[in-house]
Amino acid sequence: MKEEMVSGYLPHDVPKPGALISLGFQHVLTMFPATVLVALLTGFDVGVTLFASGLATVVALLGSGMRIPLYYGSSFSYIAAVVAVVGAEWGGTQVAQVGILATGVVNILVGLLIRQAGKEALDRVLPPIITGSVAVVIGIALAKAALDMAQANWGVALITLLATILFSVYLRGRGLLGMLPVLLGAGVGYTVSIPLGLVDFSPVVEAAWLQAPKFSLPAFGDSNALRAVLAIAPIAIATIPESTAHLYQISLYVDRLAEELGRKPLEIKRLVGFNLILDGIGDCINGLLGGCAGTNYGENNSLMVITRNYSAPVLAAAGFIAIFLGFVGKLAALVGTLPVAVTGGLAIYLFGVIGLQGVALIQAEKVDLFDPRQLAVGAVILVVGIGGAAFEGGQIPIGGLELPSIATAAIVGIALNLIFEIFPVRPKAEMLTPVTEVEGGS
């Protein structure tokens, strides 16, 4: 039977069952390293984090009527704040869950506000120069993390990277295989790693076939719950521009594909307020069950851009697979045997694509980079965000405080832009003497 030639999937498109599962698993593979790493670094249960990630994704997809193709996973932005609360004498995981739940409430309230005020009002506070620059920061700030993983074995990492790039370029438009470059590249890296002794199968042997995730309830009654809220919830100021940038990026590429397929543009960027509400519901799910705080994933966005697969049913399949992984110990353990070097090779490509999506957003929105206001906002965000990521833990030391780099970059950019909104520059006609008058007086 001749393989069906597929040039891409739009959000409501449903691939055949076999393709649905394999494409969904590729999304799981893409989100798995970061989501599990956040859980390990923060002391949260991996099974619960996977379950909550999958559930949040499925709920968001169903809640949006399968219109917003995004995957919801654990966010690096919250690591420092959550680790601080979990490790404090007065804290702990369940106390931190209260703060995570509060971030969900913040996102929901902001989303409701945006739906009431309209997208135009949001664009004044978060114009493309901010969302695009924040996206660039997110991708490039993670570059060191990608290289740290790659240096576990540079040979394997580079083989994985090259294989993934070649698959994504030369298989594009060639049916299902053309949509699985990350999965195929990871397979090449994994195969090379086995004879080198980089794959340890003992966790798979030791893991139980079935195991219940260790769900936990937030400690609402703890006297330090408010401290956790004040420590964790403000980080939402970083994930809100991040989430908005992701939605705008995907909207741009979805509409481009729709145009190529001769279909109407979907303009899902107009659902930005709804997207933040769904983002908030995801954090509420994490906070209630014992998963890590998160947002929609740039890595999975990169995968969709590379493969031109924006199918919401595929993402739903990924969500169900993640839920399933939360219960199947051996399957989760098998995915967890993916060597760090392989993950690093994939991350070099995926994180870089996140950054370039920000550039594409700025270009598509025709941001005037000759305008000193736009230059100022973008320049400050880039330097504060990328430069701040170079400090330990991505925390910028200022006056005895340690400020998260991405959140700080977003706040500074928003504040600078608001100054220009409140005190607009006078039109050129008011500032310059007409040329005719100058010539006439000479």
Short key terms for the protein model shown above:
3% strand; 4 strands; disordered C terminus; mainly alpha; two-stranded antiparallel sheet; 442 residues
Largest sheet: 2 strands, antiparallel
The fraction of residues assigned to DSSP E strands is: under 5%
Shape annotation: globular
State the secondary-structure class.
mainly alpha
Low-confidence stretches: 437-442
N-to-C span: 82 Å
Overview of this structure, please?
The chain is mainly alpha-helical and 442 residues long. It has one domain. The chain is 67% helix and 3% strand. It is built from 21 helices and four strands. It has helices at residues 17-42, 46-63, 79-87, 93-117, 119-125, 128-141, 143-150, 154-170, 181-193, 202-206, 225-232, 236-260, 272-289, 298-307, 312-327, 329-336, 340-364, 372-389, 405-422, 428-431, 435-440; strands spanning 72-74, 294-296, 395-398, 401-404. It has a two-stranded antiparallel sheet. It has a two-stranded antiparallel sheet with strand order 3-4. Helix 8 crosses helix 17. The longest helix is centred in the first third of the chain and has 26 residues, at 17-42. The radius of gyration is 23 Å and the shape is globular.
Architecture blueprint of SSEs:
Elements: H1 17-42, H2 46-63, E1 72-74, H3 79-87, H4 93-117, H5 119-125, H6 128-141, H7 143-150, H8 154-170, H9 181-193, H10 202-206, H11 225-232, H12 236-260, H13 272-289, E2 294-296, H14 298-307, H15 312-327, H16 329-336, H17 340-364, H18 372-389, E3 395-398, E4 401-404, H19 405-422, H20 428-431, H21 435-440
Antiparallel strand pairs: 1-2, 3-4
